[in-house]
Amino acid sequence: MRHSLRTAGPRQQRGVSLIELMIAMIIGLVVTGALLAMFGGMQRNYRLAEASSTLQEDARYAAEVFSSSLRAAGYTGCGGGEDGEIFRDDDDDNIQSLATRLVNGEVIQQTDDDSFSLLSPSSASYRVTGVNSDSLTMELGNDDPQLNWRNGNVVLVNDCNNMALVEIGEDFTLSASASGSVDVNAEGLDSLEVATNSPAIAVRVEEREFRLDGDGVLRFNGSPTFSGIESIQLLYGISDDAQSVDRFVRHGSLGNEEILAVRFELLLRSENDVLASPGEQAYFFDGAMRQANDRRLRYAIGGTVWLRNH
Hints:
Keywords: Membrane, Transmembrane, Transmembrane helix
Number of strands: 18
Oligomer: single chain
Pfam families: N_methyl, PilW
Radius of gyration: 34 Å
Mean pLDDT: 80
Structural class: alpha+beta
Protein name: Prepilin-type N-terminal cleavage/methylation domain-containing protein
Order of helices and strands: HEHEEEEEEEEEEEEEEEEE
């Protein structure tokens, strides 16, 4: 029997064709593009969520500062006298004006759309343990290193029976004793008698101005307080019978009516562009739906505060 031997030649190998490479590249590009788009969307959503959270936190804080400032306007302590009379030096026009405004509840003034001022305490109140009207000296019951009264400051003293506005005079002195009391010299103390066991308080009062500048910065007495505020709207609750609010009006429509309450609204905006396209967000502010032509996020917040002495 004859056997034939067959030798196997080298097996021919087949490579990847150009078309297959192109298809693989296209698939890779599509997947990469989808991943990049998803990553970009996630980043945009994260920036939007972060900006929204920051904006709401800033808005709540700003609204709280506004509310507390309005509530403090016209603060006189526990009141005093049957008619709420405030003793003062009638020869001093500034003292006379401040006393009249406190008695009449005229504690807020608005000069234009971007600024208003409040007549309110500008520091903590201090317990008065005694008044020496002969030497024009009052003694405060605690030694506070933050006490920063200066010459010319106006101080309200109230013992729940009488009130007086006094002015720190040129001979102003502030001295602390070892017992933890502070002696203050001021003009006008001869109009108020305070017993050492009375619940009298003393607090400095001044005109405090809030102004919104063109850069969205709210300034308090000239110092920057908040940034990112686009607009402030104030409405004043007035009454014809001084009992309840009949309507809310803008400052341009105020007459001789008594202001009982203030309704405020703040519009804040993000520092950077976070929206996908201009005009994407619609928001409600100052009684109307609005839409900005930029990519910044906006948030509106407000509240209503009853003024003191009403």
